[in-house]
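Support request, please re-run this one:
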Amino acid sequence: MTRTKMRVAIIHYWLVGMRGGERVLEQMCLMFPDADIYTHVCVPENISPLLRRHKITETFIARMPGGRKHYQKYLPLMPRALEELDLSGYDLVISSESGPAKGVIVPPDAVHLCYCHSPMRYIWDQYHAYKSGQGLIARIVFSAAAMGLRTWDTASAQRVDRIVANSHFVARRVRRSWGREASVVHPPVDLDAYSPGPGGRGEHYLFLSELAPYKRADLAIEAVRGTNRRLIVAGAGSERARLEATAPPNVDFIGRAPDAAMADLYRNCRALLFPGIEDFGIVPLEAMACGRPVIALGRGGALDTVIDGVTGVLFEDQSADGLRAALTRFEAEFEGVLDPAAIAAHAGNFGAAAFRAGLAAELRAAAPHLPLSGIGTLSD
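Re-run finished. Output below.
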């Protein structure tokens, strides 16, 4: 078998926008430019030209009534939709898992590697939060569906030859949810878009994220309430109206920042505030790539990227008081002391080339018989 004859399928949960999972998918597509993509739903105008160059096949979820817009309501049908995909003839299958993706049935002589962004939060660690946010009938239906989905999710994980997690935090969740061990390859930060540049330390702290409850923007806001610290909140989401209505005057909401403005937002802040628990968290790395420190909760994926006293400050108490104490420690011990060049150099260890090299090594370990030499060093 030669590399040009090797057939590769990449399974991605859904393609409705360009977020962290889709940026990882782009790197997989650079490694395998002839790969076919399978997904539950694709909205072509919302994805990058790089992804659109590939042949994209949708599951039957896209043909269900309202499936393109309300695809998540068809979650109970997604296992069957994946198992209906005919992957005959493929030598290598890579599943990009956050929603259901890994549950495909691959040919007996094919190799299946799962890159796990997160086991499905809504049926595992965030189950009760998702359930409580629904009406009575929806809670009953969701509870019954989640029980079956957990069984299928664990069973389908046993079909995979090798599992790679995006952080050590996710690797622990894979072990707990699926009973499988996972290697770790961190997702890439865009070092071309985010780097030190014009600007310098500003007079404000920055919170940049989707404004969803688990992101904990409320802690950042409460931590600066009653102080002379200024906070800029960049992002949109279900929590914005509530947070903005009660925020103190030293907090400014600027909405979702366009991509072209993101680097300047990072470069001109005192530090990025990151008080939530994330599977990995690309935003802290973007800030660090711009030379700015990060004040982060010492849990979740931040433990893989933020070094206390070197690239920022970690704190343990997930409360406004805990974050406020971390701000005081940062200002007293580290502000103006931490080296922006050293911070940016640390973020440089998480670039696209490092991701491709790491994933290539995992693929070669999973499939030593396939022609995979050189894939981790492909140019962009």
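The mean pLDDT is 92. The radius of gyration is 21 Å.
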